[in-house]
Amino acid sequence: MSTPSPAPEPATLRPARLRAPSTIMVTVASTVAAVTLALVLAGILLAVTGKNPIDAYAKMLDAGLEKNKLLEMVQRATPLMIAAVAVAIGFKMNLFNIGVEGQFLMGMFCAAVAGTYVRMPPVLHVTFCLVVAMTAGAAWAGIAAVLKVKKGVNEVIATIMLNAIALSVIDWLFQERFRYETPGNLDVKTKPLPTSAWMPDLVENRLNSFVFVALAVVALFWLVVYKSRFGFRLRASGANAVAARTAGISSNRMIITAMLMSGAVAGLAGMPSLLGNTHAYGPTRPDGYGFNGIAVALLGRNHPFGIIVSALLFGFLDSVAGPLQIAKIPQSIVLVIKAIILITVVVVNEVVARRVAKRTADRTAAQLAMPMAVAA
User: Is residue 325 part of a domain?
Assistant: First the structure.
């Protein structure tokens, strides 16, 4: 005799099958929306000033897709990847390391000076300079970490002040101790690094091999933060320090470790210029990497892949600034687009985060309501 099939379950007793959207899809969609909104707002500003936004964007695209400009895009994106990773490490620990600017300049200066006092084979000499830069950056970031752990000083305030102090200290050391002048040469700088400390170009004067170091830094960031036990403890402590302490994770130790790691990576941001281009530290030092790194990290949602794509976008915008000026389009529109991207990505990310949190809360409430409905 056949067994009768069970009666259909009442709709009110069925578990709610509400599926949350993919985190990756939400991240990509919110980032694309932020960039699109930034381009629209920048286009409106161009139209207000009497420029055709369609023509402006077409000229940007035409110039940016040339081979030389694509190489320049990657070259400009290289230090931004490194700076963004430094910022992202802090964000993962719920720390806002706004001192990447001072940390990379300190690392660049120390490497430029120390690299002239040693004689090594090429690979070892480059490695020595990288280690010196990382050590100097970590030491400078460590000051903010100690102030936060020992005295409760907010890392934003501490790192902002350390940026100013770093610039003053470096300028004093440069002028009083390490200024190197060649007779008949007005280019004042530190003593040039020997050729054994130079990084070779992949394409002469267009793209330096340091791009591989930057990609390695991004890959290590992914492995350490997303695939290791330490990375899990770091993210757990950043997400909820109280819960992490309950699980035996020392938040103070993680703060110091995260800031040291962030500073060490930040120290490398100036090395593409030092080892691949200038080979010395001088008044023409690069700047803005630290602050642009914050924008790149935010736009990339602190994810390795997102950081690479965002850095390339900023590199593209920087590479087309010159052709825009030739086409009589204000070069400052690039800065406007980057600034609007930073604002819109923060706003869009906050809106998306709140909607996702509300949807998650609704799903949780629906699931919790099921046992009570069954019991009734």
Answer: no
Residue 98: which of 152, 150, 163, 45 has the closest Cα?
A: 163
Q: What is the pLDDT of residues 331-346, one digit of tens each?
A: 788 888 888 888 888 8
Q: Which domain holds residue 311?
A: 79-316
168, exposed or middle or buried, with CB in 10 Å at 0-12, 13-18, 19+?
A: exposed
Q: Do the Cβ atoms of 271 and 193 come closer than 8 Å?
A: no
Q: Is residue 104 part of a domain?
A: yes
Residue range 266-289, pLDDT digits in tens: 999 999 999 999 999 998 889 889
Contact 97, 87 (CB under 8 A): yes
Domain count of the chain?
A: 1
Question: Is there a domain that residue 133 lies in?
Answer: yes
Q: What is the pTM of this model?
A: 0.87
Q: Is 286 helix (H, G, I), strand (E, B) or coil?
A: coil
Query: Is 43 part of any domain?
Result: no
Residue keyed to tokens 């970590």: 138
